[in-house]
Amino acid sequence: MNYIDHLKWRYATKKFDASKKVSPDNLEKIKEAIQLSASSYGLQLYKVLIIEDPSIREQLKTASWGQDQITDASHLIVFCNYTHVEDAHVDYFLHRTASTHNVGLNNLSGYGDFMKGKINEMTALESFHWTARQTYLALGNLLSACAELKIDSCPMEGFEADTYNTILGLAEKGLNAAVVATIGYRSHEDHTQHRPKVRKPFGELFEAV
Fold first, then answer.
1. Which of 16, 53, 89, 116 supports an S-S bond with 72, CB 3.0-4.6 Å?
2. pLDDT tens sequence across 94-121
3. What positions does the domain Nitroreductase occupy (predicted)?
4. Is pTM beyond 0.85 here?
């Protein structure tokens, strides 16, 4: 399987070659892979920011413990979860479903009520964590797509979310910076690329029940 070979090739790139950029065509493929990610109920309760502005990235680097990937990578991707889930989010999904499947909106009302009921059962904190987890599903698609395209990537949790939220004006949009990824091309100076992967063996990782 080429897919497995590509996963073996990828690693969390620590040093990017700042002179190399991801092509617009490949960036569109990565965006499509993110768009096709699985999400709970299919609601996609997140937004994905692609940060290219050098001045903004310099500010975000300070809020990312000074990690060079933030400024040296070709693109900085910020996955933002919605901080509050509203009935309007479900209604938007239902309208798109009705249009895409060419069915009457009234035929989806029962499913809509079910989703709203389950979501409204959550506390505010539970809802926040739920939407944040959805971003990791999208992140997984990005990492796999990059591996297929032989584009390097690094998922990152080492950043100050509140500072990101302030710099990017996310709070007033009902968003929160949940997880970050940098994409581009590895530097030959990144010695991490030569280290064998450290993973649990099958016998420890998997258990048949």
1. 16
2. 999 999 999 999 999 999 999 999 999 9
3. 7-184
4. yes
Query: H-helix or E-strand containing 80?
Result: strand 75-82
What's the rounded Cα separation, in Å, for the pair 89 and 156? Answer: 28
**Contact predicate 181/143, CB 8 Å:** yes
The neighbour count for residue 11, using CB atoms within 10 Å, is 19
Residue from 29, 14, 46 nearest 136 by CA: 46
Q: What is the pLDDT of residues 137-154, one digit of tens each?
A: 999 999 999 999 999 999
Task: Return the pLDDT at 1.
Answer: 62
The per-residue b/e assignment along 67-86, b for 16 or more CB within 10 angstroms, e otherwise, is bebbbbbbbbbbbbbbbebe
What is the Cα–Cα distance from 138 to 117, expressed in whole angstroms? 25
Helices (H) and strands (E) in the chain, counts: 9, 4
Query: Nearest CA to 142 among 54, 206, 207, 48?
Result: 48
CA 72/CA 80 separation, integer angstroms:
21
